[in-house]
Amino acid sequence: MRRYVVATMAFFGFFTIYALRVNLSIAIVAMTENKTVVYENGTVTLEQEFPWDSVVQGYILSSFFYGYITTQLVGGWFAMRMGGKKLYGLGVAATAVLTLMTPLAANMGMFALIFLRILEGVFEGVTYPCIHAVWSHWAPPLERSRLATLAFTGSYAGTVVSMPACAILAELFGWPSIFYVFGIFGLFWYSLWVVLIAEKPSEDPLISDEELRYITQSLGDTNEKNIKYPWRSIVTSMPVWSIVVAHFSENWGFYTLLTQLPKYMKDILDFDLAKTGFMAALPYLAMSITLALSGQLADWFLVRGILNVTQVRKFFNCGAFIAQTVFMMGTAYATSTTVSVICLIMAVGLGAFAWAGFSVNHLDIAPQHASVLMGIGNTFATLPGIVSPILSGYVVTTPTKGEWQIVFFVTAGIYLFGCLFYWTFASGELQDWAKESETLKTRSAVNADNKGMTNEGFQHEL
User: Fold this and answer.
1) Is Cell membrane set as a keyword in this record (predicted)?
2) 162-193: per-residue pLDDT in tens?
3) Among the four 41, 207, 252, 321, which has the fewest Cβ within 10 Å?
4) Crossing angle of helices 273-303 and 2-32, rounded to 10°
5) Do the bridges between strand 44-47 and strand 35-38 make them parallel or antiparallel, or are there none, so unpaired?
């Protein structure tokens, strides 16, 4: 089925952008580690190739997000006009080209590297809003969870693969090889995306008549040319803000660990660089597995009529946040390396169930505006990527176990707040202000009769 080809290619797209994003977290460990240098006169000393302290490293690691935050809303708006498929591909390709230039920028100096990472963020910032524009054409309502989570799983699979791969590349060929290998891979993916994926099902020459009919009938009119955005209603909608707060909370924990976990494992758990890469990838391996499971399970509850959309989103999202709060506190108080690693794996892995909650909730409450809503949410959800590495850089200076406990305490508290806010205000129902056409109004009435489900004809087709 062609919609699953789209989801699979989107999976590898997110795989690529997260490999391009996380590579510096591993590379910077190699770039700043003390190395034994023997001079011609026999003097032996320890030197760093790049003598950056923890504060400077925090600014470098967060610089990506300075650019990333600027194109979230703009990316969602442009995606609905020029096409999500086109803009998504260009975002990945441009990031890949800039990644190939990273070693040159690093050797030019700290400010050149920061500027380049900001540019990477600008181009990668359009990708998440764009994918919701793609799903607005390709994802039938009863398959939104599984298609979206299949694609989003690529983010964590990319992290899983890139962390140990970056460590190995740094050990064998030097840290510059990290950026060359993944930059080339990104350009290869883009060439496949252009050839294999169409903007809409109606433009896909390989789609079957049956699948085309099923998608178009289940989605109704998805023509975006005459969309008018009810901005006042959007910014005053509590279901929208519940998604924003949940996304912010999940990203705080994710970006904290994404940028700081290699350092924590090296400084506190005393792993060498190669082992750090493998161990830091384990939590994301758990998440990549559970994320695909969460989407299937969420849609199963909907198809069986066991839970309505609102209940599925709340149970999955808040259950994940509670689990993350518990295990993040467990990490803070862990007394052994084994317990610390297990708690981190559980905290990140169980967090995958939240993505069957907030991450597809935009499509429930306002499918015609989903890419713009994702852009708004991801704008706020990018702030943790800016603030968290800098905050960690100021807190963790010695480094000591007590300093890292502060980092974990803050993360646990944010998870808990996100859980309470989402449970109170989230909804899975099409909002009144999102009813752009009679087609959408009709589908909304059917959804209400079926507790958030699509009509019976579409269920029978499944």
Assistant:
1) yes
2) 888 998 999 899 999 999 999 999 999 999 99
3) 41
4) 150
5) antiparallel
